[in-house]
Design goal:
The complex is a heterodimer of chains A (366) and B (1058). The longest helix of chain A has 16 residues, at 350-365. By secondary structure, chain A is of the alpha/beta class. Chain A is globular, with a radius of gyration of 20 Å. Chain A has ten helices and 19 strands. In chain A, strands 10-12-11-13-14-19-18-17-15-16 form a ten-stranded mixed β-sheet, sandwiched between helices. A seven-stranded mixed β-barrel of chain A has the order 1-2-8-6-4-3-9. Chain A has a two-stranded parallel ribbon with strand order 5-7. Chain A starts with a strand and ends with a helix. Helices cover 36% and strands 19% of the residues of chain B. Chain B is built from 35 helices and 39 strands. Chain B has a seven-stranded antiparallel β-sheet with strand order 14-13-10-11-12-15-16, with helices on both faces. In chain B, strands 17-18-21-20-19-22-23 form a seven-stranded mixed β-sheet, sandwiched between helices. In chain B, strands 32-31-28-29-30-33-34 form a seven-stranded antiparallel β-sheet, with helices on both faces. The chains are: A alpha/beta (366), B alpha/beta (1058).
């Protein structure tokens, strides 16, 4: 028997549906993702920490979940909203159903609601907090609980997802041409896989690691990872990056891009409802080519705040927002979107190669 | 801007007649291309032989050629028009093949014309399977094991590699013609033989069988800057082994992980790059082994296709339009996404609903076809439905088919048990049978093993099949509506009337919500109103402001109701827009122009059922609803709409009923003193034989209320009459069987007219070339008539006028007349749009459907510009038949319509017009060689002159014994040959040996049928034209004479009418 569940939004709007996953109550910032595939990667992406994800595509769970498509070691989202979750799964790699996966992880979800209507609310009113419950269906009580959910802006969520100790990605290979230290702000595993595929030994270090500690590992390049939430409260990482500038080539993705930009003197702001999906067109301003990109961010770098020596390399064609920058005077570049994809198109994988080239050039100079 | 300025004029190649595998989706793409390029300021020259298309309306191009799509004719057009470029990618396989031929014969080089959209090299790489495989190998894309054979020996060598079952596909054919699966050596031998002769280059592909693999398609668009985007992924519910055109498909793909999807995406784009599709849209087909995930590319089409039309409708991204702009140099990031108005065409649509496409078959037209689906396409149309869930979408799609299904739910048929073993084969309604099987308690795993359909889809159907009867309370009914149940389905389960469910829903506020198709899953506001219904909490659509008219479309294409009706619907939109009305289109056919989101002011992509139409009416409250343009489809619900208070504008539906009601209509004819063949109606076998005896044999029998002459037959004896009625009872049910005297040897005429209730305008009189008894849609016909005396013409016109006024027609009326022994009879009256309206409109330059809509909206004939220029144009309409898809079928024409489409032959001389029509229809009228004549006794006398004409033109004559004797007695030199059962070599052997170039064979009754079938089958296979009437033969002689002169000229509509 399906158990009823409720989603209550900060603006007072509520949706009645059925429970999905664990029975309980969970709050967070409600956002929507327009990817039509890749729910497992999305759920396990640490950038979603503190957020309740709405999938706009109606059928979720059709192909189940499997151990290979994890982007971190657990589900990171605070909640999950779908139109219809599949009770059965059909895929040769599947080992578990979505429902069981969510239940086991204690993640609260809701299904059977008009997710398109919810998306339109978020699009028009902007991202807002919300609460899902399948054990408390009393709206007044939920309103009180919802007030306790902290606002996204100003929160340092990186601490919650960053590793506690540094670790090295293990693969079949024993010898690599490059060593990269990745500052873990909430890193997705596919970034590490991509670096490893490009012949990099990857050492993942906690977000609070100091510049000296990083340099002591003697990397050829430093990678600034993706991560959740507002970049500004992550001041320790910004400071670290400031000290790393011009020491080693730096490549940043998503939150890493924002941290790099902040370290270089630019500023960031919160987008109305963010970019989350796998269909965002981005133009590479150097080549003029369009890449279809995977995106997941609620904050962005303000183009007018860019210092002289920081040039725009990528622009979002939907809304003109900044998608990538490169330093003119030092070896550092970053993109707002996700070239590692997973989920999403692979159009931008060349950026990992550019990072390798940057490391090569830097090595030759020194 | 990167738009090309070095080219000024572009020749667009159309797709020609509607055939199985190439239908009105190419009118949709061609129309988009014309509009897209014209608005860029290019001079557009268009050639298409299909007069029913919207693209050939002369407003859409600068020079419109209704001419055959052959290298000779197109070369003549190129010589005359001197275009700078040719766009060959919006006219299907026909246009691509033509482009290659023009290149091979040096025409392109000679006139300095370049191909845009796809170059010859790319087309060849994509089309030649051997090269395609090699190119895929070179970029690391996996393909099926197998290879190419040009003879049976090497084929047998290859099958050792692939094993059985093995797939045999002839190279370079359309719609997979000749493709088949062999399960054993004997079958393999036979199919390779057939494939080698079907392939224009005598080559077949032998491949490992992928039976049971999942099938997918990706629609890709690429620009010259190498920006490539996926518009849509499509998943076939039927696994590999069924032609994608015959599969039930869904969009987006529903069972792929992101890892698999992205691999498919990468390969799709890489495939376009490797093949060299510089700009435009292509589709790439994939197969995935569900056990291992192994993925292979099956094929790609370097052009827009049926799938791209579906993808355009499924996502709101107009692929053909964008492809046309890219072909002239634009980049994706220079073009707007017109649905949002704010974003660019450089993006990938994200959809938040499920689209289901279901093919429509017409197997009952071809009773000997076994109904088993395979790698060769057999469907004649399709429907698409949009729902928020798969269940809703699937049920909406099946009830859109107009085959009596009210959802996916099986009809209640007593005493019919499912044969599970047979469900191994895909058939038209296998999914419905699966529902039945689940109801009978069959396990999902069992059905998966039998059908190989992905368990996810089976599970969805299982859930529906096992839904108990709902409780008659609001929450429960709402839940059922969300699962796509129609009011009729709920009524059946609750033992209520449909109206009671509707009343309950309205009272409880269980109303559909309408949602927009916006390309972006609601991420951005949409400005175009392309909408569908679903049962959710938020309705996004508010009624259109101002005066508005709703037009009900024609639903799925089928034999008897196709592109012609969509043409009329679109014209109606244009006409009403001109008068300042907002237009609302309701239709469910994804192939059409009417479902292009920028044709009407609002498009409801919905089933044309009473429930769905009323839901829209409830929301929009239109000032009027037009039902006379969409063929039989809107008429099926017109009365109920009117009873529900809907304002049907134009001719009242009761007049349409009146014309169908034998008794009431007979009274009108009596009153007007218009002769009609004696008739009667019967509900039982006994009644029928009584009526028929009274009328006198032969009689024409048919069930009432049919389009396309379904179930219609000419019956010569009481015995066959009884047999017919016994069968017809199954077909119809509550409606009676109609029995008419059959006017043998009469000439038939079709008239289309406009009436405003007071005045009548005769659009044109068409004379059939085939004799009476052949369905009007299957008969070649000529305008103006080639054999009609002035007093007879006057009588036809007067009858038309009187009938139109008596039926209080407002809009279009079509009347069929027969003339025998100086008497003009009325055969049939249809106060609505007919199949011939676009043809007559093109030839007379009077947009009849557009005017009809304006009359319905209150204009008078005197308000319209009906001034007709005098010209000496003769136009021949020639049907095309799908016999090559149903090789076991006899090729003889009957009252049952079998043609899928038509071509026009336009000239100032009848012979030339006929010759062009024949060429356009793909019939190779010979100018020399041997003609084989075999006629029934009745025709023998009249055959003498025909045979003499052939002899005088230099033809040799072969004939069967009986015919030979008659001809020899009249001094003709004839070689007598054996009938099939008279020993060998017989006529089929002679055809196979290439000794016969033309067959004249008139039907001879049941006894000689086996002969006729064999001749027909051999003729189809060796592409020998078969003429089955003497009047057809006479006209053919005129055509052959003209062809022999080799002086066919080409003229554009603009040349003729300006």
């Amino acid at each position: 028997m399906k158990k009823p569940a409720i989603l209550l939004l900060e603006n007072g709007h509520h949706f009645k549906g059925f429970s999905l996953g664990a029975i309980g109550t969970s709050g967070g910032e409600v956002c929507f993702n327009t990817s039509m595939t890749g729910y497992q990667e999305i759920l396990t992406d640490p950038s979603y920490c503190g957020q309740i994800i709405t999938m706009t595509t109606p059928h979720i769970g059709n192909y189940g979940v499997n151990p290979e498509d994890m982007e971190s070691n657990k589900i990171q989202a605070s909640g999950f909203i779908v139109r219809e979750a599949s009770p059965i799964h059909s895929n040769y790699r599947a080992t578990q159903s979505l429902e069981d996966y969510l239940s086991e992880a204690g993640v609260v979800g809701i299904q059977g609601i008009d997710t398109r209507s919810l998306t339109r609310i978020l699009r028009d009113k902007g991202a807002m907090n919300g609460i899902i419950s399948s054990d408390d269906l009393d709206l007044d009580s939920l309103k009180k609980k919802l007030k306790l959910v902290p606002a996204m802006t100003g929160q340092d969520l990186v601490q919650e997802v960053s590793c506690q100790e540094s670790w090295t990605w293990s693969s079949q290979k024993t010898a690599y041409s490059y060593r990269v230290v990745a500052l873990d702000l909430g890193i997705k595993h596919n970034i590490i896989r991509q670096l490893a595929e490009n012949d990099c030994e990857v050492i993942i270090v906690p977000a609070t690691t100091s510049a000296d500690e990083i340099l002591a590992l003697n990397p050829q390049g430093i990678f600034l990872s993706n991560g959740p939430g507002d970049p500004e409260p992550v001041d320790y990482a910004i400071e670290t990056v400031k000290s790393l500038l011009d020491k080693k080539p730096i490549f940043g993705i998503c939150l890493g891009h924002q941290i790099l930009s902040l370290a270089l003197g630019a500023s960031t702001y919160k987008l109305k409802f963010g970019h989350r999906g796998g269909n965002h067109p981005v133009r590479n301003e150097t080549s003029g080519k369009v890449e279809i990109t995977s995106q997941n961010h609620g904050f962005a770098v303000e183009p007018s705040s860019l210092p002289e020596h920081l040039e725009v390399t990528h622009v979002n064609l939907n809304d003109g927002t900044l998608e990538g920058v490169r330093c003119k005077n030092i070896p550092a570049f970053s993109v707002q979107y996700h070239p590692e994809a997973s989920p999403g198109p692979h159009d931008s994988r060349y950026l990992f190669k550019e990072f390798i080239t940057m490391m090569d050039t830097h090595d030759k100079k020194n | 801007m990167t738009k090309r300025t070095d080219i000024k004029s572009i020749l667009i190649l159309g797709a020609g007649p509607i055939v199985i595998g190439q239908a009105c989706e190419f009118d949709y793409s061609g129309t988009q291309a014309c509009r897209a390029l014209r608005e860029e300021g290019y001079r557009i020259i268009l050639v298409n032989s299909n007069p029913a298309t919207i693209m050939t309306d002369r407003e859409l191009a600068d020079a419109t050629y209704l001419e055959p799509l052959t290298p000779d004719i197109v070369t003549a057009i190129i010589e005359k028009e001197k275009p700078d470029a040719i766009l060959p990618t919006v006219g299907g396989q026909t246009a691509l093949d033509l482009a290659i031929k023009l290149d091979e014969r040096g025409t392109l080089k000679k006139y300095g014309v370049q191909l845009i959209g796809a170059d010859v090299e790319a087309i060849k790489k994509a089309e030649d399977r051997e090269r395609f495989k090699a190119v895929m190998d070179s970029v690391g894309i996996d393909t099926a094991r197998g290879g190419f054979a040009r003879n049976i020996e090497s084929a047998l060598e290859m099958v050792k590699n692939t094993g059985f079952p093995a797939i045999i596909r002839p190279s370079f054919t359309m719609g997979g013609t000749g493709g088949a699966t062999a399960y054993n050596n004997e079958e393999f031998h036979e199919l390779v033989d057939k494939g080698l002769s079907a392939s224009p280059i005598g080559e077949v592909l032998i491949e490992e069988s992928l039976l049971g693999w999942k099938e997918f398609e990706m629609e890709v668009v690429r620009d010259k800057n190498d920006n490539a985007i996926i518009i849509c992924s499509i998943e076939n519910i039927d696994p590999m082994g069924v032609h994608t055109g015959d599969s039930v498909t869904v969009a987006p793909a529903l069972t792929l992980t992101d890892k698999e999807y992205q691999k498919m995406r990468n390969w799709s784009i890489e495939c376009l790059r490797a093949i060299g599709v510089e700009t435009g849209g292509s589709n790439v087909q994939f197969a995935v082994d569900p056990e291992t995930g192994r993925m292979i590319v099956i094929e790609m089409n370097p052009r827009v296709s049926r799938s791209s039309a579906l993808a355009s409708k499924a996502t709101g991204f107009p692929i053909a339009k964008i492809a046309a702009k890219l072909a002239v140099g634009y980049l994706l990031d220079e073009l707007p996404n017109e649905i949002t108005g704010k974003t660019l065409a450089a993006f990938e649509p994200s959809i938040d609903y499920i689209v289901t496409k279901v093919p429509r078959f017409d197997f009952e037209k071809f009773p000997t076809a076994d109904g088993i689906l395979g790698v060769q396409m057999q469907s004649v149309g399709e429907v698409m439905a949009i729902g928020r869930t798969f269940k809703e979408s699937l049920q909406k799609a099946f009830r859109s088919l107009e085959v009596g299904l009210v959802g996916l739910e099986p009809k209640k048929v007593v005493g019919r048990d499912l044969d599970l073993k047979k469900m191994r084969f895909a058939t038209a309604f296998r999914l419905v049978k699966i529902w039945k099987a689940f109801q009978d308690g069959v396990e999902l795993e069992t059905l998966h093993k039998i059908t190989q359909i992905d368990p996810w889809f089976l599970y969805q159907i299982q859930e529906l099949a096992l839904d108990p009867a709902p409780k008659f309370e609001a929450d429960e009914i709402r839940e059922y509506k969300r699962r796509g149940y129609s009011d009729v389905q709920l009524a059946q389960r609750l033992d209520l009337k449909e109206s009671e469910i509707r009343a309950f829903r309205l009272a409880e506020g269980i109303l559909p919500t309408f949602k927009e198709v916006d390309t972006c899953a609601a991420e951005f506001p949409a400005r175009t109103s392309y909408v569908y219904s679903t049962y959710e909490t938020e309705n996004e659509v508010i009624a259109l402001p101002g005066k508005k008219v709703m037009i009900l479309g024609g639903g799925p294409n089928r034999i008897g109701q196709g592109l012609e009706f969509d043409y009329c619907c679109v014209q109606a939109v244009f006409g009403l827009n001109e008068m300042g009305y907002k237009t609302i289109m309701v239709n469910c056919n994804p192939e059409t122009v009417s479902t292009d989101f920028d044709i009407s002011d609002r498009l409801y992509f919905e089933p044309l059922t009473f429930e769905n139409v009323m839901n829209i009416v409830d929301l929009e409250n239109p000032d009027g609803v037009l039902v006379q343009f969409g063929g039989q489809t809107p008429l099926n619900i017109a009365n109920r709409l009117q009873e529900a208070g809907v304002n049907i504008i134009g001719t009242n539906p009761s007049a349409i009923d009146l014309a169908e009601d034998r008794k009431k209509f007979g009274a009108i004819l009596d009153k007007l003193k218009i002769p009609a063949p004696a008739y009667g109606t019967a509900f039982t076998i006994e009644e029928a034989s009584l009526v028929a005896t009274e009328i006198g044999y032969p009689v024409l029998v048919r069930p009432s209320y049919v389009l396309g002459g379904r179930g219609m037959e000419i019956v010569y004896t009481e015995e066959s009459l009884k047999k017919y009625v016994a069968q017809a009872a199954l077909v119809s049910g509550e409606h009676p069987v109609l029995i008419d005297a059959f006017l043998e040897d009469a000439f038939e005429f079709d008239v289309d007219a406009l009436c405003d209730g007071e005045e009548v305008y005769i659009g044109g009189i068409l004379q059939h070339i085939e004799e009476a008894g052949i369905h009007s849609g299957d008969s070649a016909c000529v305008i103006p008539p080639y054999q009609l005396l002035p007093n007879h013409r006057k009588r036809i016109e007067a009858y038309t006028r009187n009938l139109a006024l008596s039926l209080k027609t407002i809009g279009l009326i079509n009347i069929q007349f027969a003339m025998k022994e100086g008497i003009v009879y009325v055969l049939e009256v249809n106060p609505r749009a007919s199949r011939t309206v676009p043809f007559i409109s093109k030839v007379t330059d009077v947009p009849m459907a557009k005017y009809a809509a304006q009359l319905a909206a209150g204009k008078k004939l005197s308000d319209l510009n009906l001034h007709r220029e005098k010209h000496t144009l003769i136009a021949v309409k020639k049907p095309v038949f799908p016999f090559n898809k149903f090789p076991q079928q006899n090729v003889f024409l009957s009252p049952e319509m079998k043609s899928t489409g038509e071509v026009i032959g336009l000239d100032s001389r009848l012979g030339a017009a006929f010759a062009k029509a024949e060429i356009g229809a793909g019939n190779h009228l010979p100018t020399k060689g041997t003609v084989f004549i075999s006629v029934n006794d009745h025709d023998k006398q009249n055959t003498i002159d025909i045979a003499r004409d052939f002899q005088e033109m230099g033809f040799q004559i072969m004939a069967t014994q009986g015919t030979t004797e008659v001809l020899r007695e009249n001094g003709l030199i004839v070689q007598a040959i054996h009938k099939i059962n008279e020993g060998r070599p017989h006529v089929a052997d002679h055809i196979k040996n290439g000794a016969i170039q033309l067959v004249i064979n008139t039907p001879m009754g049941a006894l000689a049928r086996e002969d006729e079938y064999s001749i027909g089958r051999a003729a189809i296979r060796y592409k020998i034209p078969v003429i089955t009437t003497l009047s057809g033969a006479k006209t053919a002689i005129r055509g052959i004479r003209r062809l022999a002169l080799d002086d066919l000229s080409v003229n554009s509509l603009q040349d003729i009418f300006n």
